[in-house]
Structure formats: C-alpha cells, structure tokens
Amino acid sequence: MNPQFLADGILTGALLGLGGVGLTLAYSILRFANFVHGDFLTVGAYAALVVAGALSQFLGGSGIGPFSFGWPLIVALPVAMAITGALALLLDWLLFRRLRRRGEEIVLVMASFGASLAVRSLIEFAFTPEPKYYSRDLQIAMPLGFGVRATPDQLAVVVLAALAGIALHLLLTRTAMGRAMRAVAENPELARVAGIDPARVVRATWWLGGGLAALAGVFLGLTVQIRPYMGFDLLLPLFAGVILGGVGSVPGALAGGMIVGVAEALAVPFIGAAWRGGVAFLLLLAVLLVRPQGLFGMER
Amino acid sequence: MTGTLSYLAFFATEVLVNFIAVLGLNVQWGFAGLFNVGVAGFVGIGAYVSALLTVPPWHGAPGPGHIGGLGLPVLVGWAGAALASAASAAVVGVATLRLRADYLAIGTFGIAVALHELAANAQGLTGGPFGIAFIPHLLATVPPGGLARGFLDLAITALAAGAAWFAIDRITAGPFGRALRALAQDEAAAASLGCDPRRLRIQAMALGAAAMGLAGAVQASLIGYIAPDNFVPILTFQIWAMLVVGGVGSHRGALLGVLAVWGLWSAAGGLFAAILPPSMATGGASLRIVAIGVAIAASLLWRPRGLSPPGRIVSRFLR
Amino acid sequence: MTTLAVENIVAGYEKGLPIVRGVSFAVAAGEIVTLLGPNGAGKSTLAKAIAGLVPERGGGIALDATRITAPAHALVRAGIAFVPQTDNVFARMTIRENLEIGAAVLPRPRRAGRIAAMLETFPALAARPKLPAGRLSGGQRQMLAIARALIPEPRVLLLDEPSAGLSPALVAGVFSGIAAIAQQGVAVVLVEQNVAAALGIAHRALVLVEGRIAHDGPAPPLRDGKLLARLFLGRAEGAEAA
Questions:
Q1: Spatial CA neighbour of C189 closest among C211, C166, C160
Q2: Does residue A150 lie within any of the structural domains?
Q3: Beta strands C2-11; C56-63: pairing state
Q4: Nearest to C51 among A182, A186, A193 (CB)
Q5: Closest CA to B230 of B89, B121, B99, B131
Q6: Which DSSP string do the residues of C69-135 spell out, in sequence order?
Q7: ipTM at complex level
Q8: How confident is the model at residue A109 (pLDDT cuts 50, 70, 90)?
C-alpha cells in the first residue's frame, strides 16, 4: 500500500470530519437531515475569498513563510465563519423555524433541499462556475518520510483541523452551552424542564455548524479549489461519515469523516479517483445494513 | 405557424414525460410519505438501462470494449428500465426504511450521486461523459425534425403517460392504495390489521421508481441520445416542484403542477435569454434554478397542499 | 401561605380536545399534595401543564400570588421544578454533568455550592460523579433526577410518578426523601399510581377523574381505601355508561 494515499485520505478525512460535525449537530439538535450543509462549506470558502481579496490591499498579498496564504486569509477566516453562521441563522429564521413549528421533519428536509439549490445557484450566478483560488502561488510538496509528500498548506490544514476538533470537544464538555446542546440532542423535553432555552440552543447550533462548515470550506478551497459545487459534491461523503460515526455523536462525526476520507483515498489505486461518491455510497449502504446506529451511536 | 405548432408539440411531449415521473413521485410521497431525493437517479437508471438494452450492437459504441447494445425491441427496453429502477429503489428501501424517515432521503440522494458518477466514468458501459447515442425510436419510420415527427412523439408519449396514469390510478385506488392510506393515517392500527408497513413502503418505493424509470426510457428513445448531465439534482428539484405545486396526493393535480412548473421554467428561460446579455447566459440559467428552489421553499411554507386540492388523500406529512 | 395556585386550568395536546378540563387547587409551602386518579384521568397532563410542557388552553397558574405565563424553561428560573416519570436524566451524560445542567440557571458563583450541597444530600451520587447517568440503577436515577430539579432551590416541586419501576424498599427511601424536601418549605405536587405510598406522606389528596377534580381533602381519611375506591370506580362506571 502506498502511504501517499493514506496521507491524502487523512487530509480529506479531516475536512469531512469538520464539515460533518455541523451536520451531525443539526441532525441531532434540529432533528433533520440538512441538505444545505454542503453549501455552507461553499459559502464559507467564497466569503473568505471576497474578504481576503478586499483585505489584501491593506495587509499585503504574499504568503507567510512556506504557506501560500498570508494575513488577509487568516483574518478573513473568522469573518467567513461568522458570515456563514449568519446565513444559517437567516435561513432558519426565514424557513426552518416556521416549518419546525409544524413538527414535520421530512418537510424540513425538503425545504433544505430547495434552499440548497437556491444558495448554490446564487453563488454560481455571482461568481460564475469557473474555479477560483486563494493564491496563484505554486506550492512544492515536501518529503515527510516513508515516501509521503505534502505541501505546507496541507500540513497546516490537518493541524488546524485537529485543533478545531479539540476546541470543539472542550466546548461541548466544559461549557454550559455545550452541555445544553448535548442535553437538547438527547432529550429535548427534559432539557426544557431543566431550564434550557431551546431557542438559544438552536441559534448556537446554527452558529457552530455554519462556522465549522465555513472552516472546512476554506480549508478545502486552500488545498483543492473553490467552485460553486465544492460543498454540494461533498454532501454524500459528509452524510456517510456522520452516519458511520453515529448520528448525533461529535467524536463519531470526526472519526466517521476520517474513515470515509481514508477509505476513498485507499480505493483510488484500485478503481481510480473518479469513484469517490460510489465509495461513500457503498460505505453508507453497508453501515445502514449492518450497524445503522453507527460506530459511536446509541440505539434509539 | 409550423414553428409554433411544432414547439407546442414539443412542449406537450416534455410535459407528459415529466408527468410520468411525477406520477411515480406521487406514489412515493403523496401516498406513502416517502421522501425521495434521488428522482434524477431513478430516471437516469431507466434511461441508461433502456439504452443499453435497445441500442443496436453495431452502433453507439463510443469506444472499444463497450458493453451493452443488445438491440432488443424498444418496448422491452422500456420494461427493463422500469424493472431496473424499481429494483434499485427496493435496495435503498430495504437498507433505509426501518430507520428514521430522513435516512431514506440520504440513501436516495446517494444512489443519484453514485449513478451520475457511474454514468460519467464507466466509459465501457455508459460512454462516460460522451453518453450513449443512436437510441432507437419506437417508430423510426418518420424522419426526425419535422412536424409529423413532433406529433408522433407526442402521441407515443401520451400513450405511455396514459398507460402509466391508468395503471397507477388502478393500483392506488385498489387494496394496495387503501393499505397505504391506512398506513398514512395510523401506522400502528394498519400494522395490527395485517399490513406490513416496511414491506408496503418498499413496494411503494419500487412502484414509484418504475414510473420514473419509464419516464427516463421514453425520453431517451425520443431524443435518441443521453448523457450524464441530463440526470443531475436539478431534475429532482423540477419533479418535486411539479408535485408540490400541483398538489400532493392527486394525480390530476400532478398534471396541473407539471404544466405550471414546466411552463414557468420554459418562460423563465426565454425571459432571462431576452433581458440578460448573452455574456450572462450561464448566470440566467443559475437564476432560473434559484427561482425553482425558492418556489419549492415558498410553497412548502404557504401552500403545502398545492394548487389543486387532493382528491382522496393528503400525505400525513402535509396537513 | 399559598405558594402555588392553579386556577381553573384547561390543557391538552390538541386544540378542542382538553384532557384537563378546569382544575383549581392550591399548595402551601411545605405541603405535599398528591394527585390520584384512574389511568387516563389527566394527572400527568396536569403536572406537565403546570410545568409548561403541555399548552394551556384556559386558566393559569400563580406563584406566590403572582400570575405567571412562561415557557417551560423560564418556569424553572421562576421556581417551578418538574421531574418527569421516564427518561428523567440525561443518560449519555455523567452524573456531574446532569447536575451542572441543573445548576446552569443559577448565577455563576452559586453553581458549585449547590452541586456540592446535592452531592452531600445524595451521597450515592457523590461516589462516582463521572459515571454516565444511563448506567445508574432505577433508584439512583430517580435520586439524580430529583437532585437535578432541586439544584435551583425551587419553590414548587412537581413529581410525576417517582415510584414507577422501583422496588418497595426503594419507594420508601425515595418517599421519605420527598417528605424531607417538603419540610424545607418546598410545595410538592406528587402524581402517583402507588396510592398507599403517596397517601403515606401527603398532607392533602386530589382525586382527578376525567380531567376534573372529584375529591379534594386531607390525605389521612383516604388511607383506608373505601372512599378512594368509590371515587375511582363510581366515576369510571359512569363514564362507561355514557
């Protein structure tokens, strides 16, 4: 086995894990499969592109050290996360909140499907289907040993994704809001009589899910490219990772995303790079048939 | 004049092809409450299977090693298309229907993505991005392009749509439909009366997908050519918009919905082409999709029953 | 001194289908009022309506003579605590996390103190604070649920069948705990099927039949069972005839 594929898989897996966390939170707290989530990645990537482009006039456009990105993108990253979180809240306010009150989860799924289409096509309208890049600088992959090569950007992404995962774990276990989110996910009615305001938790979930999706989107844009379909194309592997890890489990989403990413990468030498979706789909079917509650999930 | 007539024939043909698929979605969603996000996938399976069954062996092979091209009769191809779609829907149903409703959505979404990938990459089987050409027409005696061919296509499609409508209406009005309605109203009560909810849902899933497969096969044989990008999520959205706008649970409403949405879709295309400069043509296409997405969301919010009130049943998901 | 006043409350899950049809009663500080009645009489619905979980269609509640209408989570801050019958702890979270959730409604400086106080009151919980609540025995779960509800120092404690699924020995322990809570000045409303245990600690008993109060009086006279049987059965037969 070629360790290079494993390394590529870890990079993809880190992105899928970050993106999947928001999806699994939405699934367990808001209780529906949110098809807009993939497009949140795209929104985040384009938001960072615009903000970084505007900032590069003041902060300079060159990369820091070995990296292709500089201060503009670093500053743009939190801004893009906030923009994406705000968009998620706006969609909730316009659409999901009203449908949630009627209590029909599948109508929510459908509405998210329609919203996904609209968001993606609006991005395509505004930015054209042409791929875009944060930097035109070519990066040289450095040898890391065992025949594995990676660019400094790729290494930065894996390290930052791991840090984000740790921060998230601390947020969910050590803060009142994190515990409140887990409480609502497990038992919404008990959470209410325990004094937790469901509306606050819903808002926090959108902020967090949207923000992490934006983070994954920027990382994806940094290591691959920025396209209107970049997030939507990732939706199936994202779902596969979330279900594999166990719906509602944040460590599960991180681990599931990693497994899907590595599985896709390991399949590449045998069946070619074009079959990623098929690998995700087969993994998904296998999990649903064998262990539908996922690796970290509980029986419901 | 001829141009207008031939456009009308083309428009009506497209409406009827879509109507066949909408009928299938109506069985799944309107009667059984099953949320299928992979309509385009099931239509695509029908189109590709019928093409592989009917394309003559010496034609349509885009490259060496091309499989398929059995040269079977067109009607056999259509039947095979319906069966193949139904079978793949049943597989997804078996995997997901014992779980929460949105797993089915994810599973059908997955099959659509996987099919598109298969169509785009399995060169030997599907022609890859080049697609499959020379798909035979049901009555190839009339040369393509003329008004006569337009009306012949319309007649063939009308027959196919009529047959599908009749069959689905019979089935949904009979014991199967009654069981589905009982299931929609009270699952526990229906189960206690001897209906197996999971089995019924898998059957509804398969029946609906059969209609979608047929729609794909009919379309493929009329146009004579298919490519992966005919079967992308936008098709799923269109079929959904037609059903939701038309009124869930009513076959007649579904036809109204197809007319309304396909009319708007075509008109919006013309409008954007007229008012936007040619350089923004792709932008116009995107805006058109935005309009469909907003229309779905808005009708869910304000008119969950659609334009036409349902005849007998509303899905329990849409009160 | 009346702590909780329930005034002509009408409640039900769907509009036009009230389950509780106009119930009024009052609970004083330190008093235990038990809600009894046949199955389906609306006891649990009444408790959930007071806790804000079931929509009130008419009437309302007052706390310390102040009328309050608020969503369930805000009622907790106002001083009304509710312990549901089943699934009343967060099974995937640790004992300590369950208590921390209860404490989150308090101002930050008071949280640690209240959690420590609860762990002192329920030493069985203090032994392994990192144990997931799902692994606790039935009696310990009930203790944790009650401890979680008591952390914000509520004025009113609503308990929905705390004896459900417990062995008789455990029931005695839990109920003596409830009596001790009332002695500290909490107004307790106790919904129960275990009539004997409930009447053993209650000061007053309400009998609810078909969503209305059929009897309201001191608990001790009901303990011999004849009056209670007549109240339960008399109405139930009448209902069948109608």
A1: C160
A2: yes
A3: antiparallel
A4: A193
A5: B131
A6: ---HHHHHHHTEEEE-SSS-S-TTSBHHHHHHHHHTTS-HHHHHHHHHHHHHH-HHHHS-TTSBGGG
A7: 0.89
A8: confident
- How many angstroms away from the CA of A186 is the closest CA of chain C? 7
Does A277 contact B113 at a Cβ distance shorter than 8 Å?
yes
Only one residue has tokens 């098809």, namely A35
Determine whether the interchain pair A183/C102 forms a contact, defined as Cβ–Cβ distance below 8 Å: no
Note down pLDDT in tens along chain B; length 319 residues. Answer: 677 888 888 888 889 999 999 999 999 888 888 888 899 999 999 999 988 888 877 544 454 445 566 777 878 888 888 999 999 999 888 888 877 677 888 888 888 888 888 888 877 777 777 778 777 777 766 666 677 778 888 888 888 888 888 998 888 888 888 888 787 777 777 777 777 888 888 999 999 999 999 999 998 888 888 888 888 888 888 888 888 877 777 788 888 888 888 888 888 778 877 877 777 777 777 888 887 777 777 777 776 655 544 444 444 444 3
Note the maximum CA span of chain B.
63
CA B288 to chain centre: 20
Please identify which residue in the block is written with the tokens 């875009």: A132
Check the CA dihedral B308-B309-B312-B314 and report its sign: positive
- Residue type (1 letter), A48: A
- d(CA C53, CA C45) in angstroms, rounded, equals 9
Domain-located, residue A109: yes
Superfamily of domain C2-90+155-241: P-loop containing nucleotide triphosphate hydrolases (3.40.50.300)
Outline where DSSP puts E strands in A109-267. Answer: 142-145, 148-150
The share of chain C scoring above pLDDT 70, in percent, equals 96
A chain contacts of residue B124, beta-carbon cutoff 8 Å: none
Report how far residue C104's alpha carbon sits from residue B224's, in angstroms, rounded to the nearest whole number.
Answer: 66
- Residue A82 belongs to domain spanning: 3-290
pLDDT at B147: 76
Mutate to test the interface with A, among B242, B245, B300, B303 (most CBs of A within 10 A): B300
* CATH number for the domain harbouring residue A78: 1.10.3470
Residue A300 lies in a domain: no
For residue A260, the distance in angstroms to the closest alpha carbon of chain B comes to: 14
For chain B, the 3-state helix, strand and coil shares in percent, each to the nearest 5, are 75, 0, 25
How many helices (H) and strands (E) chain B has is answered by 12, 0
The domain tally of chain A equals: 1
Residue A297 belongs to some domain of the structure: no
Touch criterion met for B and C (3+ Cβ pairs within 8 Å): no
Task: State the Cα–Cα distance between residues A175 and A177, nearest whole angstrom.
Answer: 5
